[in-house]
Specification:
Helix content: 25-40%
Largest sheet: 2 strands, parallel
Oligomer: single chain
Number of strands: 4
């Protein structure tokens, strides 16, 4: 089983990726993010993304209750 995770940022070329899918010869699970869509909807709902940075430089989205509600709408 092949597990493929595709990010949800604007730089992801989904058409190019999907063109390669027929060449995969084993069962696969595709996990896709929707970060760009989430950011867009969050902005439209006047609840922009809030990012936090750890001491090691890892950047993550801060997820409060409203953000989780928007996640559920987008995903």
């Amino acid at each position: 089983m092949l597990v493929i995770k595709i990010g949800g940022s604007k730089g992801v070329d989904l058409e190019r990726f999907l063109a390669d899918v027929p060449n995969v010869r084993e069962p696969m699970v595709l996990v896709h993010g929707a970060n760009a869509e989430l950011n867009q909807v969050s902005e439209q709902l006047e609840h922009p993304a809030r990012m936090v940075t750890s001491s090691t430089g890892q950047v993550s989205r801060y997820t409060d209750r409203r953000t989780m509600e928007i996640f559920m709408m987008v995903y």
